[in-house]
Amino acid sequence: MMPLEPVVLSFSAVLLLGLGFGSGPCNIACLPYLGPVFTATGDGIRSAWRILLPFSAGRLTGYALLGAFSGFLGLIVQDWIAAPWVRWVLGGATITVALSLIWRRHKRQLSCNSRHGGADPVEVSPPVSGRSEPALPSGLFLMGAGMALNPCAPLTTVILASATTGSAAAGMMLGAGFGIGAVLIPTLVFSLGVAHFGQQLKQHLSRWGNSLENASVGLLLIMGLGTAMGWIAP
């Protein structure tokens, strides 16, 4: 364990710290994981919440639990979150999301075939159904939690402040405050920018829709495998 040095932060301070982190490094770190999901789905801004809600909930949960554990134990758990199991969670969740997108496409093609009497499927993106991709929300939740558990300088400060409180409740509040700040700006960026870009990309390149979707899923599989094996550092 790292030696404990008293650090006191207020809720507003960790919120601002999270906003600063979320406005820059966080967007860069999340883009290789969430970007291909938006490109593969191409559902646009209106359906962006289906992706961002479970992902952001996972991040918030991860930050809050880190703060709670640090406060409860009175220890800095930085060594714990640097363990290999963290990258296995993120890598495995990313692979799960990729497989869910493959299943989503398979269900869409079956639906098109049944509608057109076995003719070649038409590139249509029907409304996303929870039944057609049951593993996608849980995979996105775990992906968000995995992103939250990866160490960074601002998070280390929050963990240190949480351990200083000696209280699980106080530590959870600090972790949650940082998480709220960290997810606000990326949520706006991805819901208004990346989701719109993914939709436009699929519309303008509809002729290569299958290839574009295959490339996005392939990138997710590479990111998942590379993260789990430690080849890619999120």
Average pLDDT reading? 79
Kindly state the number of beta strands. 0
Low-confidence stretches: 119-132
- Tell me about the largest β-sheet: none
Looking at the chains present, what oligomeric state does this protein adopt? Answer: single chain
Rounded to the nearest angstrom, the radius of gyration is 19 Å
Based on Cα principal axes, name the global outline. Answer: elongated
Helix vs. strand class = mainly alpha
Helical stretch count? 9
N-to-C SSE string, H for helix and E for strand = HHHHHHHHH
3D structure, described in words:
The protein has 9 helices and no strands. With 234 residues, it is mainly α. Helix 3 (49-73) crosses helix 6 and helix 5 packs antiparallel against helix 9 (209-229). It starts with 10 loop residues before the first helix and ends in a 5-residue tail after the last helix. The model is unreliable at 119-132 (pLDDT under 50).
Please name the defining characteristics of this protein.
234 residues, mainly alpha, 0% strand
Task: Furnish the topology, listing elements before pairings.
Elements: H1 11-22, H2 25-41, H3 49-73, H4 78-81, H5 84-115, H6 136-149, H7 153-165, H8 168-204, H9 209-229
Helix pairs in contact: 1-8, 2-5, 2-8, 2-9, 3-6, 3-7, 3-8, 5-6, 5-9, 7-8
